[in-house]
Amino acid sequence: MSTDPSLTVLKAFRVLDLFRTHRQVGVSQCAELLGLTRANAHRLLVSLTAAGAVERTDSGQYRLSIWMFEVGAQVPLLRALTEQAQVPMERLVAETGFQAHLAVRDGTELIYLLKISHVDGRVRTRPGTRNPLYATSLGKILLAGAPESLIEEVIAQGLKPLTRYTRTSPALLRAELADVRRTGFAYDREERQIGVSCVATGLHDHTGRVIAAISVPSNSEHRDLDQGRLQAPLRKAAQTIEARLDRRAANLP
Predict the structure, then answer these.
(1) CA–CA separation, 253 vs 251, rounded Å?
(2) Which fold has domain 5-64?
(3) Which CATH superfamily is domain 74-249 in?
(4) For the purposes of burial, counting CB atoms within 10 Å of the CB of 208, is it exposed (0-12), middle (13-18) or buried (19 or more)?
(5) DSSP run (H or E) holding 146
(6) Every domain range in the chain assigned CATH 1.10.10.10
(7) What are the start and end residues of each CATH 3.30.450.40 domain in the chain?
């Protein structure tokens, strides 16, 4: 009888939970603590090692990997982003009359962290929603600030058309990303959803690295007017968020 994959995942997380109270865990100890057979405990630890979540020490014990530390370090950053972006984005929505979105990159996709809206809009997103980087203004900001290897990976996966306006040419995408780096703004002209256009700009840390992006979507029939007048308030909101993040990092009041 095959094992239910969901049960295996749950067991793997139970193993990871042991490292809350144990710096290192051996196979026998893992089996005893979780009520597993030694063979099952060994199989789970080996699988987690192959996935990069844990690593085997010279003594035969297992400990969390540096990769897990890096993943965990993202949690306070994401929480800080949503907390510090809330008020500036609310002001942005009040000033423009449009929705505002906050997103970060996760691999070759973007994930929405925050959506502020005082009225019903046409953009079908919510926190946790994922979208491709190449077909959204938020994604283009994040992609323009990413390593060249990530851009190559996105192109290699294929630039699939989401609407008739989606840019599927690698050369055109590269040219657009160069323009994003030059101007600091990116646009989505009905490339992900017909009837909706967006303008986005980046959020930077103290080193200048792009860590997130915010955008304002507008109805496409008012695209030129709205995107032209949205740049200034969008950039002002981004600068306010960056300043709030800097003050938080410096533990200033």
Answers:
(1) 7
(2) Arc Repressor Mutant, subunit A (1.10.10)
(3) GAF domain (3.30.450.40)
(4) exposed
(5) none
(6) 5-64
(7) 74-249
Structure tokens at 107: 């691999």
Model-level pTM? Answer: 0.70
pLDDT at site 206: 85
Rg (CA), the chain: 22
Any idea what DSSP says for residue 25?
A: B
Read off the pLDDT of residues 30-67 as tens digits, 9 standing for 90 and up: 999 999 999 999 999 999 999 889 999 999 999 998 77
Q: Which of 214, 207, 218 is CA-nearest to residue 239? A: 214
Pairing of strands 100-106, 109-116: antiparallel
Long-range contacts of 245-252 (CB under 8 A, 24+ apart): 245/80, 245/81, 245/84, 245/203, 245/205, 246/206, 248/80, 248/84, 249/206
